[in-house]
């Protein structure tokens, strides 16, 4: 992950940003409101971490923003237009979602998986072209998978597999990328691999939002934090602005101390202890 942003930047993405947000958004599961009357906008070209306790609506919000979950009221806006009014292929060219649970056919290679990211760009009149292969090569390069492209997906480590799924989203060539718990079940080394890839994509101009359970990682690898509780955004801003002992206590029932990271200045949580009622 040491190459410069310009070396790994897709030509179609260098000068194109998309804006994504929601106005008075209400999302329900059945008759139960999970999120009600929420306003949010993702900072362009930044990494946003959505944090909060289990069941607070983090993944529901991500699914609502990506058009997977239809709102009961309110609107999700993509470049100022109701996302549900746009053709599916048009949305897929601007926004990619990597869900928590990913499934691939048996016996598929990394490169074959990444090819699926080009589907929004295909049609009866436009079949596979040189720019499709260029997009795949770019995605392999960006995810540091060039030497593994012929490997079967199910023979890879957890971190390599997750990078392959992100590479598929990169090949989709969208300026927006939403990731639901991208480091779930990964060990520390593989978590760092994935978070560094996400940071590199942001440096290339992409706008990313990710649901993150690990608060220290959210502080270290994001530019913007959205803190949620019971379906509401209770505070948002940069990690330095919003992360306080009081917020950690309110979200998780944990006492801690905060010190600045000596390299990045982002908050580090220490002396963590569960509050017992």
TrEMBL record:
- InterPro entries assigned to the protein according to its UniProt record, in alphabetical order: AAA+_ATPase (IPR003593), ABC_transporter-like_ATP-bd (IPR003439), ABC_transporter-like_CS (IPR017871), P-loop_NTPase (IPR027417), Siderophore_ABC-ATPase (IPR051535)
- Record CDD domains: ABC_Iron-Siderophores_B12_Hemin
Q: What residue stretches are annotated with the ABC transporter domain?
A: 20-255
Highest taxon of source: Bacteria
What is this entry's stated membrane topology? Answer: Peripheral membrane protein
Asked if the record carries the keyword Cell membrane, the reply is yes
Q: Which GO terms describe its biological process?
A: iron ion transport
Q: Which Pfam family, any one of them, does this sequence belong to? A: ABC_tran
- Keywords in alphabetical order: ATP-binding, Cell membrane, Ion transport, Iron, Iron transport, Membrane, Nucleotide-binding, Transport
Record-stated family: Belongs to the ABC transporter superfamily.
* UniProt-recorded name of the protein: ABC transporter ATP-binding protein
Native source species: Marinomonas profundi
């Amino acid at each position: 992950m040491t190459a410069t942003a310009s070396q790994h930047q897709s030509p179609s993405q260098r000068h194109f940003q998309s804006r994504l947000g929601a106005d008075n958004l209400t999302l329900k599961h059945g008759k139960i409101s999970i999120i009600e009357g929420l306003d949010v906008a993702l900072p362009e070209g930044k990494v946003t971490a959505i944090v909060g306790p289990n069941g607070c609506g983090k993944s529901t919000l991500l699914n609502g923003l990506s058009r997977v979950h239809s709102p009961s009221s309110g609107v999700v806006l993509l470049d100022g237009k109701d996302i549900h009014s746009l053709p599916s292929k048009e949305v897929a060219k601007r926004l990619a979602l990597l869900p928590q649970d990913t499934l691939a056919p048996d016996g598929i290679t990394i490169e074959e998986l990444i090819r699926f990211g080009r589907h929004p760009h295909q049609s009866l009149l436009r079949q596979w072209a040189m720019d499709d292969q260029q997009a795949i090569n770019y995605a392999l390069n960006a995810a540091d998978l060039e030497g593994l492209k012929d490997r079967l997906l199910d023979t890879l480590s957890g971190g390599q597999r997750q990078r392959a799924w992100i590479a598929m989203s990169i090949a989709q060539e969208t300026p927006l990328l939403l990731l639901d718990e991208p480091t779930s079940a990964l060990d520390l080394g593989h978590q760092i691999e994935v978070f560094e890839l996400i940071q590199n994509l942001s440096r290339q101009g992409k706008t990313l939002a990710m649901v993150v359970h690990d608060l220290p990682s959210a502080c270290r690898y994001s530019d913007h934090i959205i803190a949620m509780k019971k379906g509401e955004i209770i505070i948002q801003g940069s990690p330095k602005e919003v992360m306080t002992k009081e917020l950690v206590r309110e979200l998780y029932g944990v006492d801690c101390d905060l010190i600045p990271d000596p390299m990045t200045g982002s908050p580090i949580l220490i002396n963590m202890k569960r509050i017992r009622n």
